[in-house]
Amino acid sequence: MPTTASIRRSSELTDAGPPADAHAPRRARWRRVDGVLLLDKPVGLSSNTALQRARRLLHAEKAGHAGTLDPLASGLLPVCLGEATKFAQLLLDARKRYRALIRFGVATSTGDAEGEIVDNATMSFDVPALRAALARFVGRIEQVPPRFAALKRDGRPYYEYARQGIEISREPRVVEIDALTLVEWSPPDAVVDVTCSKGTYVRVLAEDLGRALCGCAHLAGLRRTGAGPFDVRDAITLDALEALDPSARDAQLLPADAALAGVPVLSLDEADAKLLLLGQRPANPAASGRYRAYGPAGFVGLVEADGSRVTATRLVRAPGGDGS
């Protein structure tokens, strides 16, 4: 896992633009590709740029990422391809894990390393005080979204107002912090592991910790280490993906149902699986709830059971077939 020094080094990386794909034909055909690619996004790339580079390397017709990382952040970016895009929302809603570099005593205009310095403060706290402050932020807390956020008001993102110097009211939102663990303390920098709910702004957390301890702080570096069932240790970089031949790239893909690892399994016989695909509700005594359903031919899709019947939520297409 990265320490203070490694997070600092990663912040110096820049994007030199998409490299040529040595293994791609001059005119590559887009093709159906189903699965989940765990990408280790570098600092300096937007999530969409990283997604499009991976998509081109795989010649995939359809792709989307499950959770934006700012260009200044690195780490796990799950890329859903083809039929896996139908289940991307589960990853968007899943718990996320980060390693954050928080610099105390300095505030910036954006709350992260991209902004201009707007305030300074003298630090006088020790490690026990830092650990105690971290503990106070664990649980359900309220966060005021940052001025530079993609949230919208009157159809316009917050960052557009901020860039024009317009102040708007930003209502606090409840988020959940499952764990805050001090990894390293090298004044004025603390490396902290964060496990949190969807919608948590780690830079706001850094600013709030700064106000609680010495008056100000900002997020100097961020790396996503996990999302739902996935870990960045299993991810591949764009450079490593590019260096592979096409068949080896395909071998990096997890199956389309990988995002559903935490959902219980429901096994169906061939007849019931066909009924679901026909839009019908087969009888089944499964307990009420959400399931990932499998038939003799493999993964069928996400279903809901009510104790007597099963209803399709999202079904996958068989190769060359239809689904919804």
List the helices and strands and how they pair.
Layout: H1 4-10, E1 35-41, H2 47-58, E2 63-65, E3 73-81, H3 88-93, E4 96-104, E5 106-108, E6 117-120, H4 127-136, E7 139-143, E8 152-153, E9 156-157, H5 158-163, E10 173-186, E11 189-196, H6 202-213, E12 217-227, E13 230-231, H7 238-243, H8 246-250, E14 265-267, H9 270-277, E15 289-295, E16 298-305, E17 310-315
Parallel strand pairs: 3-12, 14-15
Antiparallel strand pairs: 1-3, 2-3, 4-11, 4-12, 5-6, 7-10, 8-9, 10-11, 12-13, 15-16, 16-17
Tell me what you see in this structure:
- It is a single chain.
- The protein has 324 residues and is of the alpha+beta class.
- The chain has 3 domains: 4-94 and 229-258, no CATH class; 96-227, Pseudouridine synthase (2-Layer Sandwich), CATH 3.30.2350; 263-315, PUA domain (Archaeosine Trna-guanine Transglycosylase, Chain: A, domain 4, Roll).
- The protein contains 9 helices and 17 strands.
- The protein has helices spanning 4-10, 47-58, 88-93, 127-136, 158-163, 202-213, 238-243, 246-250, 270-277; strands spanning 35-41, 63-65, 73-81, 96-104, 106-108, 117-120, 139-143, 152-153, 156-157, 173-186, 189-196, 217-227, 230-231, 265-267, 289-295, 298-305, 310-315.
- The strands form 4 sheets. Strands 1, 2, 3, 4, 7, 10, 11, 12 and 13 form a 9-stranded mixed beta sheet that branches.
- Strand 8 (152-153) and strand 9 form a beta hairpin.
- The radius of gyration is 22 Å and the shape is globular.
- Residues 8-20, 22-26 and 320-324 have low confidence and may be disordered.
